[in-house]
């Protein structure tokens, strides 16, 4: 297919596709799906080989958020029966992180619900970062604490944070439909603050919230412009008790097309499959490794992922390898700043589903399991 040959050539040259080309990827038929995966897979292998970076989420503070992000189980008014707890102590967080690191993760993503941290919160997280770094040489730490005020990114960087995650989530034009308590511009501003402080910026999206193909392309092009080192791609987890509980729009094929489009637009960036991997890709997860070079190991913030052991087996069975701490994630031309391996954390508030292109899914609430183990519980984490 001419389109795919063109996109591979551009991806290998780090050239931006046109919007029409990105839209055309989303519009491909199921008959062409393996060709799309193979083409985007060439770009992925060119920049990242067969390595898969593992990231591990620690939810430092769960639930009770005053913001109203519709996709989020921790939002104001959420009826989702999730764990709710306030700040984990540095020791508790470090212990939770240790399980993920023992399972092969090289990055720990410290996430807290809320609009943004107070200066006291930044102190707490700084202590946690130090506790983790003291115990685990070479670990990368990404913070995801919401909107940052002036000077906070610098303080996190001084405390040893390598990266900061703040997702754009959706296109600027639909942002107001998803959240009313803060703006798209607020989010962009925080990504800029992270960049300016020398943190590796991580910013991504949520697919499956009822957005159009144009919205998806818009947000991915906006991300390319922001130039984060990593782009987490969430697929909406339609949590019961949230406004988007009925949004079951994604199919595994649709998820693969979205990941391929993100890879073509952001060829040399860490593309991470984030929340919703198991729920929406299901048995097609191994194919997605040909597109993304990074996943979360084990559980998400408020929902359970597949067993960490199953993640590791999937990577090996699909012919990929877990990226060690001795490898720099990003290609040399990107690896100069920040942590030297760039990438970012686990999206504050997981998510999603998507429509268009393929038939909508039937609702499958049986696939969504609220997290009941790991951080904030007495049960062993899944890693
Ligand atoms: S995504 Fe973050 S800011 Fe939004 S409701 Fe969830 S925890 Fe709060």
TrEMBL record:
Matches recorded under InterPro entries: Aldolase_TIM, BATS_dom, Biotin_synth/BioAB, Biotin_synthase, Elp3/MiaA/NifB-like_rSAM, rSAM, rSAM_sf
Binding site for [2Fe-2S] cluster: 109, 142, 202, 272
SMART domains (UniProt xref): BATS (SM00876), Elp3 (SM00729)
Record bears the keyword Flavoprotein: no
Any GO molecular function: biotin synthase activity
The record's free-text note on cofactor binding: Binds 1 [4Fe-4S] cluster. The cluster is coordinated with 3 cysteines and an exchangeable S-adenosyl-L-methionine. Binds 1 [2Fe-2S] cluster. The cluster is coordinated with 3 cysteines and 1 arginine.
Enzyme Commission no: 2.8.1.6
Domain Radical SAM core: 47-277
Class in the EC hierarchy, top level: transferase
Pfam family, one: BATS
Reactions it catalyzes: (4R,5S)-dethiobiotin + (sulfur carrier)-SH + 2 reduced [2Fe-2S]-[ferredoxin] + 2 S-adenosyl-L-methionine = (sulfur carrier)-H + biotin + 2 5'-deoxyadenosine + 2 L-methionine + 2 oxidized [2Fe-2S]-[ferredoxin]
Binding site for [4Fe-4S] cluster: 65, 69, 72
Keywords associated with the record: 2Fe-2S, 4Fe-4S, Biotin biosynthesis, Iron, Iron-sulfur, Metal-binding, S-adenosyl-L-methionine, Transferase
CC cofactor: [4Fe-4S] cluster; [2Fe-2S] cluster
Domain of life: Bacteria
Pathway this chain belongs to: Cofactor biosynthesis; biotin biosynthesis; biotin from 7,8-diaminononanoate: step 2/2
Subunit structure as annotated in this protein's UniProt entry: Homodimer.
HAMAP family reported in the protein's UniProt record: BioB (MF_01694)
NCBIfam families, per database record: bioB
Family as reported in the entry's similarity comment: Belongs to the radical SAM superfamily. Biotin synthase family.
Function: Catalyzes the conversion of dethiobiotin (DTB) to biotin by the insertion of a sulfur atom into dethiobiotin via a radical-based mechanism.
Protein name, UniProt field: Biotin synthase
């Amino acid at each position: 297919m001419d389109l795919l040959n063109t996109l591979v050539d551009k991806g290998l040259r780090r050239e931006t596709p046109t919007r029409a080309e990105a839209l055309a990827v989303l519009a491909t038929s199921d008959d062409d799906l393996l060709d799309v995966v193979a083409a985007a897979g060439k770009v992925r292998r060119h920049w990242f080989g067969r390595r898969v970076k593992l990231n591990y989420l620690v939810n430092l503070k769960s639930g009770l958020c005053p913001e109203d992000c519709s996709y989020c189980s921790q939002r104001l008014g959420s009826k989702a029966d999730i764990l709710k707890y306030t700040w984990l102590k540095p020791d508790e967080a470090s212990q939770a992180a240790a399980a993920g690191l023992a399972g092969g993760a090289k990055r720990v993503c410290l996430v807290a619900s809320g609009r943004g941290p107070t200066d006291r919160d930044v102190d707490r997280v700084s202590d946690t970062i130090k506790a983790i770094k003291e115990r685990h040489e070479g670990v990368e730490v990404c913070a995801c604490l919401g909107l940052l005020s002036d000077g906070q990114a610098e303080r996190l960087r001084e405390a040893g944070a390598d990266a900061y995650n703040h997702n754009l989530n959706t296109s600027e034009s639909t942002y107001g439909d998803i959240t009313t308590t803060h703006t798209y511009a607020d989010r962009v501003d925080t990504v800029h603050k992270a960049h300016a402080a020398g943190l590796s910026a991580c910013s991504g999206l949520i697919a499956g919230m009822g957005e159009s193909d144009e919205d998806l392309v818009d947000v991915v092009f906006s991300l390319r412009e922001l130039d984060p080192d990593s782009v987490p791609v969430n697929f909406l987890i339609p949590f019961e008790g949230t406004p988007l509980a009925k949004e079951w729009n994604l199919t595994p094929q649709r998820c693969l097309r979205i990941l391929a489009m993100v890879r073509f637009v952001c060829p040399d960036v860490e593309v991470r499959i984030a929340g919703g991997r198991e729920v929406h890709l299901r048995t097609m997860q191994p194919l997605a490794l040909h597109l993304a070079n990074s996943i979360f190991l084990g559980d998400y913030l408020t929902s359970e992922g597949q067993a960490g052991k199953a993640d590791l087996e999937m990577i090996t069975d699909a012919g990929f390898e877990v990226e060690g701490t001795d490898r720099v994630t990003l290609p040399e031309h990107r690896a100069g700043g920040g942590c030297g391996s760039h990438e970012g954390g686990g999206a504050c508030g997981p998510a999603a589903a998507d429509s268009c292109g393929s038939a909508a899914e039937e609702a499958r609430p049986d696939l969504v399991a609220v997290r009941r183990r790991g951080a904030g519980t007495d049960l062993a984490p899944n890693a």
